[in-house]
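Limitations
The structure tokens in this dataset are predictions for the assembled complex, not deposited experimental models. Users should treat interface geometry with appropriate caution, especially where small molecules or nucleic acid strands are included. An illustrative entry is reproduced here so readers can see what is and is not provided.
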Amino acid sequence: MAFEYAPLIALLPLASFVIALVAGEYLPKKGGLVGMAATGGSLLLSIWAMLRVASGGFYDETLYTWVAGVGEGTLSLSFGLLLDPLSTMMLVIVSLIAFLVHMFSLGYMNDEGETGLPRYYAGLGLFTFSMLSFVFADNLLMAFMFFELVGLCSFLLIGFWFREDAPPSAAKKAFLVTRFGDYFFLIGVVGILATFGTAQFAGEGAFPQLAEEAIVGGETLFGFPAGTWVTILGLLVLGGVIGKSAQFPLHTWLPDAMEGPTPVSALIHAATMVAAGVYLVARMYGFYALSPTAMAIIAFIGGFTALFAASMGVVKDDIKQVLAYSTISQYGYMMLGLGVAGYVAATFHLMTHAFFKALLFLGAGAVIIAMHHEQNMWNMGGLKDEMPVTYYSFLAGSLALAGILPFSGFWSKDEILYEALIAGLENPVLLAAYAMGLLAVFFTGFYTFRMVILTFHGEPRSDHAEHPVPLGWNTKIPLAVLGILATVAGFVNMVPVAELTGADITYLSHWLDSGPEQLAYSTYTATAEEFAHIHHAELTPLIPGAIALVLALAGAGTAVALYRGPHPVAHTDKLGGAKDVLVANYYQDEYQVWLAEGLTQRVARGADTFDQGVVDGVVNGISSVSLLGSGRVRRLQSGVVTNYAALITTALVVLLVAFGIYGGWF
Amino acid sequence: MLIETLIAVTFVAALVVFLTPEAYAPQVAFALSLLPFVGSLFLWTRFDASGNALLEGSTVAFETQAQWIALDPYAINWHVGLDGVSFPLLVLTTVLVPLAIMSAWTPIQERISQFYGLILFMEASLIGVFSTLDFFVWFVFWEAVLIPMYLLIGVWGGPRRKYAAIKFFVYTNVASLVMFIGFIALVFGLGDSVNSFDMPAITQALHDGQLSGFAGLGPDMLALVSFIAIFFGFAVKVPIFPVHTWLPDAHVEAPTPVSVLLAGVLLKMGTYALLRFNFTMLYDVAATLAVPIAVLGVFSVIYGAMLALAQQDLKRIVAYSSISSMGYVILGLVAFTVYGIGGATFQMVAHGLISGLMFMVVGVIYNATHTRMVGDISGIADRMPITAGIFVAAAFGYMGLPLMAGFAGEFLIFLGAFQSTVLPGAPLFTAIAMFGIVIVAGYLLFAMQRTLFGAYRLETDYEITRAPLHDVVPLFVLIALIILLGVDPDIFFTMIQDAVDPLVELGGGL
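Predicted assembly:
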């Protein structure tokens, strides 16, 4: 038995979408259980597919022809599945998180008596379906299509509470900003199809392979040397990545997206929307590895975003806002890893981040329920003793986020920084990216533990914090599962330990190096070295690892020192003018809103005035001139429509009779 | 005889509805409008066309060719038939009319029989436009569409209906006149090589280089002048900047079902005719004018979208966005690739369904609230959840959401345009036109945020009630069709490619 059931991985959540939409009102838990069953099924099938791949299986089949090319030179556009180590691993992550988010939603949404739940579960189902289809897409066009559907789902779920003002606005912003990025992505997809005649990721004649051959052959594509054209196409696709993965400067939608229900935030940040961008780069890594410029830009944007977002996270008071900026920052690390040819490191961090970020969001969700939907950390405090399950799992997630040994985030982030450093020692641009990433480690440690201390430690600072609402199993189980994963997931690729002991324990590297050679990690590294000129200096991973760990501990320690004690006070004012800039998010929103509303609206109104005044003015002018001349004929214009109809009919009859006589009918 | 039967049945249906008592007219009209629909489905089962109806070596489906009026030197033939380009548009027409009729049940409350009679009369003429292959007969049908449309806007329209109706009529009639003169000049220029207005024959003669001078113009100059005259005539109908200003007025004043047909089918007459005349008969002239035409198309995309962004009236938003969407069609046509022209043809159908749906949704909201102004309503998703849900789906369809018909059309156009060898700088033109997908998202998202979401508020004195079933059924049907075509574009695209392929091969040497 091969992979013939694999399409069900995505189709089950699609079924749950339809069922919840049509019949959710009459179902137990308003469709929540159907969603759990569907995503649970997806999870089992994903694990099964992963096991098949682990035992040497590989699947790359076209299953459905969307548009079949008929004539010569027209290409066919199709849907298919690509199941390899990377995609099956991601399938497991996505379906696992989706399953846990469904379970958690029973507590967060159903138990809180929300209305519109069928719509909610339908949205979750569609979201999971879109993301899973995106993950196992075997070509770039299919990936783009589901990438867009992921955007739709985020719109629907961020704007779930549509009766309020803020959520619809945030939903609109999320879709619009990512759409701006997707515009470039779409040009890239069209360009790749037009250039190579295929958008297949893998197999004989896949587009990365054709691009490589074109570069080697010194071809000219669309008037450019092949290398330049590949860079242009790669950067166009990167536009979509920057939008969805919330990288600078298209990160502004993500903090606003916190208006959505918290389980949705967990899904968006850990496993679906935001992960989609980074995953896409990994999926077509054979293409990016051909372009030194694209790689450097990916690395630099990543490093910059990691630092930039982490600095804003430092001053936020809303627990979800802190997590939002941490997401942007963490995806910056993944981009950094990808840009320095640290393919395994970035994928590794994508996985660990999925676990600990889902955990942190669900933990924050648990706190928010307990606090009667209070999100300001200054009104919390002291929840440690009241909510032990939440506290310890949240702490595990925080240690992972901060990158502290031995939690999962330490291993993956450390590996990214190590890869960035050894590549950076050969290339100053990459070194700058590394430096920013390294500095961000301190900030990460700081804001993470500021959040932990303010939320869980000290004395309760409000009535709600003194008497939190007790939680049910449906919130505790996901937290426990993710808490364990956030703690241990890093053990799959402990590079420094492998270096120290000489043991062969970098399982993830081996995993990503299995499967077809074309998609293997070592091929990518070789390609990046040959074409993108990314060379690695000789260096032991121990020293950079130690530096990063010290910085993380210093950041965390600073936060603990500043905010410990029963009654912590805000220290942000000490930042002086910098605080205002940070609280205002570097005024990124202002200029983007000005671009989208101020400038564009003004141009639109100008165009409207021009259209009404000049273009239509000319038309009306001509007609008034002719009306003046036809004043005499005016008596015909009686304004009675039946007269017109009579006139027209008469004229038609006369014409027909005339023709009839002329044509010899009579 | 099948096409003749279809046209005749529709005409008779129109007459019957004219004479039906007001009380039964809506139901009778709907029932009778199902006849052409079923008829077109029946045609589909027997559809055996291959190739392009205007080009040699093709098989035209359901073809009838007979001399009708023998004039010297030009005979007028009754020549009808369908190919892969015209058939999808025929189906679009017969699908949209019953739905438009049902959507008229609520808003149309006076002169009911006449209203539905005119709609069916228009449908019959539209079927004629899409199936006729003789210029003279085609022109009669072409003009015959105008009359019911003029009356439908002028009698059942909004407050400024007279202005809008007369503007529509005069504008499109002047355009028809210019087009007519341009085409007749071309026929005269062909001299003895043609002896009828038969469109395939004229096409063949033009492609064989039979054009000689006329009225002091040399063959090349004549072809160019005729091309421009014909292009102008059809550009008004499409409409393309700068001859688009009749459109928003007509749409705003027209009642919902009329808007549905105006945007859904009537605009496609323009693009269909452009494809048949300018891009098939005179494809070599089109190639020399590729850059200016592409500029007009791309400019229409961005300009129409910017205008839509400035509007406060939901109907005006949709109306202006049609200009934008039709700009894509022009880009696809001018690219002269299989996916360019094929995508443009597909987009005609896709946009017909989606814009029809948008107008219907706006109509349902208007029926309930009696306003269409963005500032007057907010949060109606609270009171009309199903309508709001369909609004969201329709808007995302309009934005080109994958797996809905609009994406297929737009994507194929973009792909075809990017690869164009006829159009210099094609990738750049394509990239600029594609920015339309961002602006369209902008204005539709803003409109949705303000009208559907937020706290419920209504500035008019009406109590919102749930929309009646017959308002909502057409919406569901259209959504289903849009998704169906988006998931499986080959339903139409296979036959479209089949008809477009020989045309593009013809221009292969360009």
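Some entries come with short summary sentences. For this one: The radius of gyration of chain B is 22 Å.
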